[in-house]
Amino acid sequence: MTLASVANTIQSMVLSRTNTGSKPLVLLASGAQLFTDISYGLLSKIDRSVPSASSRIDRILMDHRDAHRDDTADVQKVAIVTGANSGIGFVTANALARAGYQTILACRNPELAQEALDTLKRQTGLENFEVMQLDLASLESVNGFVKQFKAKYETLDILVNNAGVMMCPYSQTKDGTEMQFGINHIGHFALTTQLLDSLKAAKGGARIVNVASLASYMTTGIDYSAIEDKENYDRNNNYAMAKLANVTFSNALARKLQGTNVTVNSLHPGSIKTNLTRHVGTGAIMDTIFNMVLIDAQAGALTSIYLALSPDVEGASGKYYSRCEATNPHPKALDEAEQDRLWKYSENLVAKKHASM
Ligand SMILES: NC(=O)c1ccc[n+]([C@@H]2O[C@H](COP(=O)([O-])OP(=O)(O)OC[C@H]3O[C@@H](n4cnc5c(N)ncnc54)[C@H](OP(=O)(O)O)[C@@H]3O)[C@@H](O)[C@H]2O)c1
């Protein structure tokens, strides 16, 4: 049994015993899950038998190359990574370009995106990167991105929905949705549903990868009346609900995509030191501790890269992964009534905004 399986098994056991819908138990379970995650991060740094993240990424790229040896060379394969200018998205974009995909960095800030593009080209010596502006906090921007993409490309092979914000103070997207739910879920819902035709047209199948989080367990479920409740805004719970929405949306979409050549999976990337914690004041001492125990972005991108490229998960869909292994999601994400409710809620919200544009 690997260190990763041990950590996943402990987390599944905690989940199965505590997810009764009671808030104190959920909070207790969340603490235990986070502790396991951080312990794994620390142990994987100490345990010399755990291969480095970069060697595991190289292995995935080799497996991908072997599996695609017979592909026609004149078919250009295309990948999109949202939030590719930093953290996990940046490392994921690096790997997808090295696997031969024309890799689109879908980023909100043009300067940061250009900087990332220059660094990626320098790091890899490759030219197959480009920037397309995408602000997931604006449905108009999502529409503009999709238009620009479709004007240039007929097919899409890989979509990595990676961008996210965590625990920001209360604010709203340009369309009036609470920011965390709006960026993490609604923006990606609108983007993905508008790109489904391009994904279905990909020769040899396409993959959607949704970067969720362990935080998806840290709530009793999606409370639709709480999402927009500015007075009682709970930034922890809203992040957890947005991440649970990522997993629930994945599973709903997997059902809708049955019988097509498009797969969709979600994942927890690990507990990683990135810019994501910008809204969480930690202080110098906590920062030093975090640097010791949290994994780096290279290790954090491993499961995204695995799901996007590895032949091991060919055909797998509607599953939730952690540390490159399928594991149990929050039980509500498996509930088809919950999936349908989230789909209707998201669809109505997007349709309402489109009608007013
Ligand atoms: N770090 C962790 O421990 C951890 C754990 C579990 C899950 N995750 C998930 O992993 C994903 C990547 O996060 P990360 O840790 O790599 O953090 P990060 O370095 O902060 O990356 C987040 C990316 O999302 C982008 N983004 C934010 N708002 C956006 C918007 N409105 N439109 C387009 N892009 C936007 C950011 O762009 P700017 O640079 O312009 O802000 C950035 O490129 C997130 O979905 C996060 O929830 C992370």
From TrEMBL:
SUPFAM superfamilies assigned to the protein according to its UniProt record, in alphabetical order: NAD(P)-binding Rossmann-fold domains (SSF51735)
N-terminal signal peptide: none
Keyword Oxidoreductase: yes
GO MF terms held by the record: oxidoreductase activity
UniProt KW Oxidoreductase keyword: yes
UniProt KW keywords: Oxidoreductase
Record-stated family: Belongs to the short-chain dehydrogenases/reductases (SDR) family.
PANTHER family recorded: PHOSPHATIDYLINOSITOL-GLYCAN BIOSYNTHESIS CLASS F PROTEIN, PHOSPHATIDYLINOSITOL-GLYCAN BIOSYNTHESIS CLASS F PROTEIN-RELATED
Name of this protein: NAD(P)-binding protein
